Amino acid sequence: MEDEGAITIPARTIVDFVGMLPQGPVELELNEEMQTLHISCSQNEANVKGIDAQEFPVIPQPDMDNRIRLETDVFKQVINQVVFAAATDDTRPTLTGVSMQFEGNQVLMVATDGFRLSMRSAQIPGQVDPPISIIVPAKSLAELARILPDDAEAIYISLPEKRNQIIIDMDNVVLVSQLINENFPDYTPIIPKSHTTRTILSTAEFYQACKRAEIFARESSHTARVNIDPGDEITPAHATITATSSETGDNVGQIDASVDGEPIEIAFNVKYMTDVLSVIDTPQVALETISPMEPGVIKPVGDNDFVHIIMPMHFGR
Fold first, then answer.
1. Domain total for the chain?
2. This prediction's pTM
3. 220 Cβ partners below 8 Å, 6+ apart?
């Protein structure tokens, strides 16, 4: 570096251009008078127009004395197991966020779009007292998970007073996001307290069966039937996943299962099923059901920290 300088440039322009450059050193030259950044790499160059760096919003500094420490790999997994269940439209802004609750040595993160709910808890180093409850935009957390370096040991969260913001810092990266200043809906009433059928399945086999069914379920609001059969002395227990399309055909997939309870046929949005199965890393998964009209619960076998709830769909006979 020959000299220091600062400029504010369009993020999309610089990311798109640099992403298309060949491997090799990149040279940056700032013309402060013209507020232009010259970029050159090999035989490629560009002039990106910007504005005075003074016009960029002031970045708040993290409170070094009141930060919450989280292990990077754990926090990244928690984000990935929750963030996909948040709403993507702004008709209900609260549901586009993720509820984060810190209490004692635990963090609980919850997201829901009204049709499914993902809930994940994890231990954190140290103690948080008094408890903290905030709603962070799901897009911010998804971006954080994307940029989190694999070799970072920990990240730190701080909440500047009266700013309605969250600051997440790690190594040489700082992410600042506005919080959603709303009350997260009470989701506890929709969490089933019991079940009549518990089905244990191979996570990989269940995921692949749902992916195949998804091909034929696109024209029927992604509806797929899951038929649970406890089996008998002759036929082993199994689950059958079925999807039908009036135009493209149908698909039936059967996988082995361990079933405790009554037989049941229930329909789900199979896209939602593949979403949750893709973020479960245990070899087996449990599907708990009560009736075709009540929510299904998906849990990784051997991991009590993650619960996913999917509302059933109607299907005609």
1. 3
2. 0.88
3. 243, 244, 245
